[in-house]
Amino acid sequence: MGKIKDMRDYVGKAELRELDLWKAVAAEFLGTMVLVFVGTSSCLNGWTEGYAPSVVQISLCFGITLATLAQALGHISGCHVNPAVTCGMLVARHISVVRSLFYIIAQCAGGLVGSAILLGVTPAERQGSLGMTSINPAVNVGQAVGFELLFTFVLVLTVFSVCDERRNDVKGSAPLAIGLSVAACHLAGVPITGASMNPARTFGPAVVAGLWENHWVYWTGPILGGMMAALIYTYLFRAPKITPSYDINLENCNKGGNKA
């Protein structure tokens, strides 16, 4: 996760000619499509009489799905599958402007297709709002922005921490850590704002179900939270650069150990 220093590389125009960019864009589309389809499927009501999904069920579904995708696609695109993560990587200069724009377009398209597939395979009486996020009536829009900002802050801070190439103390699974951060924030946030933490996750159902009330909250909060986490980690918490050390045996040198 090296930092881009050259301005031309940061703009990233040259990347348009690279196959790796388009493979990564395809991975972002596919990953976000799967995340939205599987995640919002867990939010559907009424499959059996009296059935309603629990907060724990929804939280684990989103967390495990993201961990699975990060393991499967992380080596291709970084598996952002979230415009807030991409914006964080952009302001911290870990990806170019061109790449970030194509990632966000792919993520929104993937979220839209994932939600459209869910609409197509779900019986009409079970569709509801297709897992669309909504704000609890006890919370005003300003508070909702704050919740989404802080939930996404936790996610992106975790992403930057486990992906810090300077750290040598990270043990275990980075995808699992990221997935658990999502599950934890869903456990807290589903009753409050739906715990979107991802503009593309909310964008898909909004388009397909035609539900746009307070939609801006789910862009403003997550993107601000993602950028704040990226900047704070990069400039305050990033592990120090490792200085190579050399084990020099001065005693042997003084003894003339290398004799001709």
Summary, kept brief:
With 260 residues, this protein is mainly α. It has helices at residues 7-11, 19-41, 55-77, 83-91, 97-121, 124-127, 141-162, 174-189, 199-209, 217-237, 250-254.
CATH topology heading: Glycerol uptake facilitator protein
Which structural class best describes the helix and strand composition? mainly alpha
First and last CA, distance: 46 Å
The overall pLDDT, averaged over residues, is 92
User: How much helicity do the residues have?
Assistant: 55-70%
Runs in which pLDDT lies below 50 for 5 or more consecutive residues are: 246-260
CATH architecture label name: Up-down Bundle
Rounded Rg: 22 Å
Shape: globular
Domain unit count = 1
Assembly state of the chains shown = single chain
Number of helices: 11
Q: Considering the protein shown, what is the CATH homologous superfamily?
A: Glycerol uptake facilitator protein
- The top-level CATH class is Mainly Alpha
Strand fraction equals under 5%
Can you count the beta strands?
A: 0
SSE order in H/E notation? HHHHHHHHHHH
Largest sheet: none
Describe this structure in words.
The longest helix has 25 residues, at 97-121. The protein is built from eleven helices and no strands. It has helices at residues 7-11, 19-41, 55-77, 83-91, 97-121, 124-127, 141-162, 174-189, 199-209, 217-237, 250-254. Helix 2 (19-41) packs parallel to helix 5 (97-121), helix 7 (141-162) packs antiparallel against helix 8 and helix 7 (141-162) packs parallel to helix 10 (217-237). It is globular. The protein has a single domain (7-254), classed as Glycerol uptake facilitator protein (Up-down Bundle). With 260 residues, it is mainly alpha-helical. Mean pLDDT is 92; it is low at 246-260.
